[in-house]
Design goal:
alpha+beta; 147 residues; single chain
Length: 147
């Protein structure tokens, strides 16, 4: 009985360690901002601002077109409140968003007319992060994602 419990404990530790490693994403810290590489629908890979205060992932129309982001039924229009004031957006959906080995399906995406972040391809927000327990480790320059 003790041997079986020890084997089960060892397997659980191995699974936990594997999950932690699989969910680590390099994080670039620059000028007070956090930047990650992400892929939308296996069609567009770019560098995105990680914003844990943003409700949605946000893409400009050009990136959304390249990533083949589909509009949600009714093409609902929403208003986003940004640091630069309110912005109109159309709600869409990415079939899959990947950060490293971590992936989320059917992720809500707000599509705005212009690129939302100068010098980057968009924003990764809570519509992606909500499916994970996440830790932002700035000194280690890593984002840890666990399901």
């Amino acid at each position: 009985m003790r041997r079986r419990a020890a084997v089960v404990a060892a397997v659980l530790l191995l699974l936990a360690a594997t999950a932690a490693v699989a969910g680590e994403v390099p994080l670039e810290v620059r000028a007070g901002s956090l930047v990650v590489e992400a892929t939308f629908n296996r069609r567009f890979t770019g560098r995105f601002l990680l914003d844990t205060g943003a409700t949605y992932c946000v893409l400009g129309e050009e990136v959304a077109r390249q990533a083949k982001i589909k509009g949600r039924s009714g093409g609902e229009e929403i208003r986003l409140l940004t640091a630069n004031g309110p912005v109109r957006a159309r709600l869409g959906e990415a079939r899959k968003v990947e950060l490293g080995r971590a992936a989320a399906r059917n992720v809500a995406v707000a599509v705005v007319a212009e690129n939302p972040v100068h010098g980057l391809d968009g924003i990764i927000g809570l519509s992606f992060l909500q499916g994970f327990v996440y830790t932002v480790d700035v000194p280690a320059e890593v984002l840890r994602l666990e399901e």
